[in-house]
Fold this protein.
Amino acid sequence: MNHAPAPSSIVFSHPEFDQHEQVCFFSDPDTGLKAIIAVHNSNRGPALGGCRMWPYASDEEALRDVLRLSRGMTYKSALANLDLGGGKSVIIGNPREHKSEALLEKMGQYLESLGGRYIAAEDSGTSVPDLKVMGRHTSHIGGVTEQIGIDGKLNNGDPSPATAYGTFVGLKAAVKHRLDRDDLNGLKVAVQGVGNVGYRLAQHLHAAGAELYVSDIHEDQVARAVKELGATAISAEKILDLDVDVLAPCAMGAILNDHSIPTLKAKVIAGAANNQLEAERHDAQLMERGILYAPDYAINAGGIIDIFYERTGYDAAKVRAHIESIGDTLSEIFYRSALSNIPTGAIANKLAEERFKAL
């Protein structure tokens, strides 16, 4: 069992390093586990964030992802007014090929070694059953308790329904602000990624009468959306520049960049993916093009709100009300942005920083 803080020469000079409190590399040759855990900021409380398993092309790509994601969780918790800090973990590997019970158990041991500074939850490539396997060796996991969820149905702890509902609420707020529409009937929405969160968001949109266009790296998930929601399948290469009203990124990050922004036709970007902007300057580029961007960590906070209440006392009505406040938060961000001519992402950052840096 090997674990150690990441060498400063790798981390401190990394362009995504943002005064992170702790970054650890973990490896276990017996199970093939290679993982990184990053704690960005714990001023408001223990760092909570998903454990992602992904076939990263390189170790540097994984490090970049965990640094960006952990920082985003700090801002997300602060903007959602939660007593939590921000952290994230990534496991390098294809979850459909490399995941094993032994690997997950070893990850649980690594989580325990941090003594509660970081709490792991579900993310891309991991599930509630996976977290429960990790939980054999640690109590520092979230989103695994069975309860009656915000939809009135029994939930196994999976925060995806809450994340999807919060994104739906935020999307409606963005449509109201940019398109001056109170309903979504006939609205054209492109959903990039129809996994746990993206598919549930698509369900909400379908029920509201939206016209759906979907893409995903897994063909079976696209086929399900086509069959069950009447969606139109679009290739991954074309989904971003589709002529639609709303683009809802629900897959990986950094998809809003110098290459994609000039070809965007959507007037609103409102999706659940983390770190959608490749760089902060892309926030301003979207504004210059007249595209309303719902800051990702503001709109996708439903899941972390759900997990917070799981750990402090779950009341479905209270959780639902807190998630629905995402719409109010975004409306305030949009209003301040329009009034000051400052991009929405910068406004959201300022609000969040006021809440976690002052503590």
In short: The radius of gyration is 19 Å.
